[in-house]
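Standup notes, protein team

Yesterday: finished cleaning the Anisodus acutangulus set.
Today: Protein ARMADILLO REPEAT KINESIN1 structure.
Blockers: none.

Input for Protein ARMADILLO REPEAT KINESIN1:
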Amino acid sequence: MSTTTYRNGTVPKGALKVDRPLSMNSTSTKSSASFKSKTSGHTPATGPRRKSTGSVGNSAASTKDDTSVLGRVRVAVRLRPRNAEEMAADADFGDCVELQPELKRLKLRRNNWDSDTYEFDEVLTEFASQKRVYEVVAKPVVESVLDGYNGTIMAYGQTGTGKTYTLGRLGEEDTADRGIMVRAMEDILAEITPEKDSVSVSYFQLYMESIQDLLDPANDNISIVEDPKTGDVSLPGATTVDIRDQKSFLELLRVGEAHRFAANTKLNTESSRSHAMLMVHVERSVKGRDSAISSENGSTSHTAKSFKPPVVRKIKLVVVDLAGSERIDKSGSEAHTLEEAKSINLSLSALGKCINALAENSAHVPVRDSKLTRLLRDSFGGTARTSLVITIGPSPRHRGETASTIMFGQRAMKVENMLKIKEEFDYKSLSRRLEIQLDKQIAEHERQQKGFKDEIERIAQEAQIRIAEAEKGYAEALESERLQYQKDYIDAMSKLEEQWAANKQKHENEKAKSSMLSASMEVAELKKKFENETISRKAAEEEIDNLKNQLAQWKRSEAAGNSEILKLRKMLEDEECQKAKLEEEITVLQSQLLQISFEADETRRNLDREDTVKLPGTLDSPIPPFMLQHLGDSGAGEKASMANLFEQVGLQKILSLLESEDADVQIHAVKVVANLAAEEANQERIVKAGGLKSLLTLLRSSNDETIHRVAAGAIANLAMNETNQELIMSHGGISLLSGTASKAEDPQTLRMVAGAIANLCGNEKLQPKLRGEGGVKALLGMVKCRHPDVLSQVARGIANFAKCESRAYTQGSKTGKSLLIEDGTLPWIVQNANNEASPIRRHIELALCHLAQHEVNAKDMIKGGALWELVRISRDCSRDDIRTLAYRTLTSSPSFQAELKRLRIDYG
């Protein structure tokens, strides 16, 4: 039975993939075929065995315009060498095909004395290099893409014949193995100008009639959009990535291949279960094709001539890695893999029908029968230059599939496309140029404005100088006028003095007369002052009356205040009575709490006498020992009591008892909180009410080991939630748990602490902080206890930590050596890999497999003796998934294979 999986191995159910290159020793030859966009050639004759002597560019001479030419689909056939299975099974039989590459001819044997002959554009033997395949199949299409024509490169054939090897090989170990995708992008990036041109890539797969983004797996239902005017097909919902260099493109291909669906079948260890399509969009500026902008009167103005919209060519290259056609009885597909095979065969059948209709010039081409044919409508009978490579195998057992593949290629050679160059004005570039010119005009205007301001300032300065000169002249005139007035004043004063002397004599004579008049005026003034004093006295008397009234009001206010004080005293006495009642209620609650705690202890002791219980689930998520009290029927009464206490007393009052000075009250309160925390429905309420902080505070402040044990169990229950894990870490929970473990002597306390740390080890975001605060070292320290329950929790924590590290390696967020190996856990892991206790052994086996999945840990694992344990696990482990994972790890690691080879152990 085969199982579908991603290529990155996230579902390790299938067998290991073994890449077998078609050829490693052949010498590549340079392709003589070159593309000319406006050349003419002969149109190939119809018939199942026609001969084509022209290159891709040498198609029919009739053209629609200067950018439209006829281009026949060019087909090459590539033979895969025999693999190890075929060498053993077909050792007594000859190949079913015979190649004549110099004649571009292939013979398919019917029997030992009869064969059919077919001719193709290129015939590639099993010794043809990847470079040779690229030059004869893909390079002419790439050159036409750079000249402005859309292009398609597609691989078709039976599953396991080397389609993905031909197209998508990255060549990380040997650059000579690079496939068509990598080599095509190298040529495109080498020809474009980064300042003017752009290259972007989309990578997606067609899986069971659903288009899924390989660069963003969450985007799994992309819609096909067709332009109603031109009929062009696009996928606006697919992720598009701009490509600047070859390194970023290789990384993009790695990400895409990791998300592609694959399965293990009888015909291929890792058979592609989807059609993968790499869509490359290229925009190139065309020199000498700019169009002038005419002015309103029909002539081209001098300004308009400098702003011509440049012409750009928008080209699309599609590289299609079709899923392999297969027969169900040979592939052994069943269940979900059978449904995948049906979907693949239906889409390939729809493609074959479209090609048959095009080859026979049928009036109706059923392109809408499948999403695959809709996506490829431009590649067959459209405007793209298409090159098809069909891959076949030599085995006579698959002669029927080989014949079907050859006939598919023969029919495809009859299809002709009308190649067109898509050009349009680059108004965006023109807009940028106009913006630059506008910025220059604004700068010129600002410069002129500054000159204008400078001129105004100069004129203002000249005006100031003239004003100063006028003010100076005015001051001089004013001074001369002042001197004249001063002279006139002196003359007038002398005249007045003379008159004053004359008048003085006259005044003395009149003085006697005025003395009598002044006495009468003084008496009148005294009368007026007396009247004013009388008015002031009356005002003072009125003020005294007002003060007396205010004093009376203050006395009344004082009496009202005294009555209010009496009311407050009475309220205080009522509060004291209420306080006494509350103290009595607390006493009752404490007694209830003691009773519930006693019942919980009785239930736990009953459950501890039973065997360890483990619910069905994955190996790395067993139910921890401190959750066992919730599994039996004996816990029903305790839950009911807890629920009653929870509803009647309230969580806040229970948590307040954790701060009691009475040690017994504290112990019983923390037991109740621990039992409440075992219920997932209560955990969020406990955390919101501050229960987590109170439990951590108890670990820090209390010296009672019973409190430590129960509090650690409650924290372990809360640590089952990812949000609570982050809160525990942020409040220093690991340091407190590590300190508790170092001081504890009771195995049950150590079991609770180890369980809490094991739960935190399952959160990959917290791993660096957990290790930095001593979480891993605390786990290793607890193995000294040697109690099976403690060792089981330690093993579970190490397995969770190793699994998260393995996921980080796969996602690319971690590259260095494992933190577990750096902290010295490997000797203990190897020592307990074959522990008699089943829970301990299974956790350790899983941890070893996760550590061994990444090459950076291989050297330390070989040195520490882990290799022998991996070999044992791959052969003797009772769990199928762990055994398969160990086998896959051993066969995929170069270091492990080299060591086994050095020890002369045949494994793989």
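Follow-up from PR in the comments: The chain has 30 helices and 20 strands.
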